[in-house]
Amino acid sequence: MPPNTLPSDSFDSCVSKTENLALKIRNKFETSKIGISSLTHREDIGVSKKLSEVNEKLKEMSSRNGFHFIDNSHIDGSCFSGSKLHLNPKGSAYLATSFIKFLRPSTNKARGPEGFHVPLQQLGQLTMQLASGPTHAPVHKKPRR
C-alpha cells in the first residue's frame, strides 16, 4: 500500500490492498517467505491514530495469512529528517535492521568469512555507521600541471 493513500483510504482499503498484493505474490511464488512491514511513524500529515489502527489490522491480517509482520514501531519522530517525511540515517538504519532480522531471523552467532554472518547487534551498529556516512570527506586533489 502506498503510504500516501493513508489520509484518503479507509482502514479496510489500506489493509485489503496490501493483503491482495501479498496473496498474489504467494500464489505466484509458493515457497516465498512474505513479510508485511508496518507503516512507519508520520509527522508530515495528521494520521497518527489511523496509522496505528492500520498497523494493528496489518498485524492481524499477517497472522491470519501466515505472513511475517515486521514491526517498525521503534521508528519514531527522531528517525526523520527536517521534512518529517524522509528517514534520516538513524531511521534508515533501524528500518534496514528490521528487514535484516526478517530475512535472517536465526543469525545469532558469528561465523567465518564463508558465511559472512555477524551478530544482529553488531550488524545494527554497522548499519548505523554506514547510514551516517563518512566521518570526514576524502580529499582528492588534481595533480598540478
Write the SSE topology.
Layout: H1 11-28, E1 35-37, H2 48-65, E2 68-70, H3 89-103, H4 120-132
Parallel strand pairs: 1-2
Helix pairs in contact: 1-2, 3-4
Number of helices: 4
The order of strands across the largest sheet is 1-2
Number of strands: 2
Instruction: Return the string of H and E elements.
Output: HEHEHH
Main beta sheet strand tally, sense and closure: 2 strands, parallel
Task: Tell me about this structure.
This protein has 145 residues and is mostly helical. The protein has 2 domains: 8-73, no CATH class; 74-133, no CATH class. It contains 4 helices and 2 strands; from the N terminus they run αβαβαα. It has helices at 11-28, 48-65, 89-103, 120-132, and strands at 35-37, 68-70. It has a two-stranded parallel ribbon with strand order 1-2. Helix 2 (48-65) links the parallel strand 1 (35-37) and strand 2. It is globular. Mean pLDDT is 78; it is low at 110-116.
Short précis:
With 145 residues, this protein is mainly alpha-helical. The chain is built from 4 helices and 2 strands.
What labels would you give this structure?
145 residues; 4 helices; two-stranded parallel sheet; 44% helix
